[in-house]
Amino acid sequence: MTTAHFQSHYIPNTEQEQAEMLATLGLTAIDQLFHDIPDEFRNPPLDLPEPLSELDIQRELAGLASKNRALGSGPSFLGAGSYHHFIPSIVKALMTRGEFLTAYTPYQPEVSQGTLQVIYEFQTLISSLFGMEVANAGMYDGATSLAEGVLMACRVTRRDRVAVSDTVSPLYLQVIRTYCQAQGVRIEVVRHWQPEVGDDTACLVVQHPNFYGGIEDLGELAQLAHGHGALLVVSADPLACGMLNPPGHYSADIVTGEGQPLGIPASYGGPYLGLFTCKEQYIRQMPSRLVGRTVDTQGRTGYVLTLQTREQHIRRERATSNICTNEALYALAATIYLAAMGRQGLKQVAELCYHKAHYAAAEIEALPGYSIPFKRGPFFQEFVVQCPAPPAQINGRLMERNILGGLDISVPPYSDPLPSELDKGMLLCVTEMNSKNDIDALVAGLAEFS
Amino acid sequence: MLKGGSRDTGRLLMERSVPGRMGVVTPPLDVPQQPMPDASLLRDDLGLPEVSEPEVVQYFTALSQLNFSIDTQFYPLGSCTMKYNPKVNDEMAFLPGFAAIHPLQPEEQSQGALELLYRLQEFLGKITGMAGVSLATLAGAHGELAGVLMMRAYHHAQGDTGRTKMAIPDSAHGTNPASAAMAGFDVVSLASDKDGNVDLEALHELAGPDLAGVMITLPSTLGLFDQNIVEVCRIVHEAGGLVYGDGANMNALLGRTKLGDLGFDVIHLNLHKTFSTPHGGGGPGAGPVCCAPILARYLAAPVVTATDFNGNGSGSTYSLSTPEQSIGKMSGYHGNFGVLVRAYTYIRTLGDAGIKSISGNAVLNANYLLQALKDIYYLPYDRTCMHEVVLSADWQRARGVSGLDVAKRLLDYGFHAPTMYFPLIVHEALMIEPTEAENRDTLDAFIQALRDINQESFDDPDFVHHAPHTTTVSRLDEAGAARHPDLRWRPEA
Questions:
Q1: What is the Cα gyration radius of chain A?
Q2: A223 touches B at CB < 8 Å
Q3: Domain range holding B381?
């Protein structure tokens, strides 16, 4: 009998019950159920640490958590794809309901109408936000969503050359390269002011606003891409689309994005939410799940997973993607967030970010030694500052004032596309979470180096 | 009136929208108003609803009540490991020191997060018998893609570029061939033998200089431990190939055997299955990749490394690093950290004995169901099963009741359906996975329901054929949904 004495409190069966159940099988020990495992490989030592009570676990985890600096513990100006925005209390309260949290993928629509209707709402709100015709039920994150957008553009155009603007997030570029490494796709990084697009280009890939904060002329870029039969693939900040024209306004073909700004905590980089939208004509090349509205046998409205013949569980190696589990719970979070913020609220938040960021940029530009190299063009909530000292050094001093500074873009991969004279760049992000006091404290901290 | 919710769910958000209603009050602008950008950049068409906060709460709460979930129903969905999701796991992931930290903040300000990730890498390495671990992949299929890209990178590094074939059993999850295809491989199907094991003769025929490797799910999707597994690994290795392990079914093997010991080279785990993190209606998950020493240099970036200044672990500092020949970054940052915190918390509740109690009870519960049902539902492979039992509704089918009908009728009994028509090699498959977290009363009630439905297949097959009868909606027109896709609300649609 090798039944262990310690058993998890997540298991109801008592030793007595186990014995009775084993008896129905003509067995006396649980270990006998594992006789197919060769003896020499069975019951190896694990050497995990001793189990803890819930109280002790909470203490251990609280101890680890306390070694991290939380965004709310002081002014924070770090963005670069993960943003500190306000999350209304109702988002967590609703998304942690067990009926949402502990449900599986809605493969049984009769008992999953809650999740399915939420995803239909999500598809409605995201396609509307991006000005696009259709949205899917979500991808892993902004980076993978863009990489899948690139692969989809290659399928649609049957071309294998991809032009990625040098203002696209260097982190996203790395993920595009990973996803494309075995697909025979050629990735070319092109200058954003003069992107080279040819008649064999599958797509031009840009970001809105771009990684360095700027707002590019999407209309011109779309015209350029379309003139060569290429698609315009955009990764967009959904919150910026609360005030700025969305990529769909400029005839973008595939618009992806990082959904994290929509009510999802920074959480050290995940779980986040990939947004994925496109023109309706390309829908059969779309990756990931789609929910459609239909009727039941009695004519009542209901929702189902649809167009599943694109997906891996039906199409296997000929599927549009291997994606299965995505981020449904965070699609729910984003839907609740957008419902709560609504038409007025999202615009107001976007404008708060805009005004605060521009106030900060103006104050910093007034400091001797600092300049805002890209300020001639419009920007949203992020901007690059050329500093008088190495950004890492400045950030170290800011942290002494409990201020989390911007991203040091004087190092690879962020510095790769930057002009050589921009050698002490810091990418700062200002959101509605930063009060005027926060911004003034940042400026005072930066002034030390003036 | 809809069942389950007292609040109306019939109208969508845009249909509830009333101009002027607000769900959130934003703070006033506390800096001087700045010049606006050119008006041509600004939108005036933001199509979002206007709904008050109580309406949002009531609507989404009512929607939640239209779902089955683990917390409300038995969910014996095969291959999905729908076990209890401990609440403490969620609470830990929501600690501000975890939920509110920025992925790019300096490592000195993230040492607690990095230490947790480092320890989790170690735990998963111990559980799987694998030397290398990367936590950067965000779901099972995502881990698969990383794993097969690593196999490709390994072969290419040996100058062995002719290995274009990936052999995958006919019982495999669809993600396996889809991932292999994304990694540029030609997929070849590997047959199963009469006992549900990999057919060794078929494997011998495929094991040549063009074989990159095989992708094996253990236990297989038939719920069986492959009795030939050691031989399978030997044959593949002898031919110069690598063995990928799909860890979707690891719940059966926790503490019972280590995939690394058996000969697997690279595997992924599904933390949202085996390690109790909630499935969330379809994610987020996490799909860490574990590998043998020869593949560790190809792992997805980043991995967490420790520098031990005092030589005794007391003064370690942790940092993110990129393995020397990494396949690259698989996602924007470092993985689904919130999910990883939950899995870490779970493993800390268990220890060695607790881990074994998971697999032991999961397998016991599945065999208890097998034993109680095999007289009335055809059992295609009459062997001790692992964490799940695959039955067939072939006998019911002869009476006009399909596997689908049985599954739908279970919904009326208040049980979620098993996985149906999968694996593809079993007719009318009903794949049932009870997990360790269900008590015997629930199992007995489920057995009784399946026995009752079998009786109904004699008495009134037509009634079963039209099930479910008591759910919010009855069977939905899926063909119509695909023919005329209605994927979003439109004004006056």
A1: 25
A2: no
A3: 358-475
